[in-house]
Amino acid sequence: MTYEEIKSSTKDFLVPADIARVLGCSAYNINLQVKEDKQNGINSFPFPTILIRSRVKIPRIAFIRCMEGTKEEQENGNG
């Protein structure tokens, strides 16, 4: 998906294949990193990731906020 397609989507959650093109990496590598992060109790991404069994999900709105640099503003109630 392109970033514009992500923004106009109505999906609540994205999958690595949806964001791979925007991030400039492969969906496979996103999957691997999320799984490794969850095993180690960390999150290497600047947006939340969810691992359900072997499925990786990314909240669409949180991803958009991160890409637009509005995450901190939203969390602090300034946006």
Key terms:
79 residues; alpha+beta; 3-stranded antiparallel sheet; 3 strands; globular
Flag low-confidence runs: none
Rg, please? 13 Å
CA distance, first residue to last residue: 27 Å
Taking all residues together, what is the mean pLDDT? 91
Shape: globular
Structural class: alpha+beta
Strand order in the sheet with the most strands: 1-3-2
Helix share, percent:
40-55%
Most strands sheet: 3 strands, antiparallel
SSE series: HEHHEEHH
Q: How many individual domains?
A: 1
Account of the 3D structure:
With 79 residues, this protein is an alpha+beta fold. It has one domain (3-70). Helix content is 53%, strand content 13%. The chain has five helices and three strands; from the N terminus they run αβααββαα. It has a three-stranded antiparallel β-sheet with strand order 1-3-2. A hairpin with a 2-residue loop joins strand 2 (50-52) and strand 3. Helix 2 (16-23) packs across helix 3 (27-40). The N and C termini lie far apart (27 Å).
Tell me briefly what this model is.
By secondary structure, the protein is α+β, with helices and mostly antiparallel strands. The protein has helices spanning 3-8, 16-23, 27-40, 60-68, 71-75; strands at 13-14, 50-52, 55-59.
What's the structural blueprint in terms of helices and strands?
Blueprint: H1 3-8, E1 13-14, H2 16-23, H3 27-40, E2 50-52, E3 55-59, H4 60-68, H5 71-75
Antiparallel strand pairs: 1-3, 2-3
Helix pairs in contact: 2-3
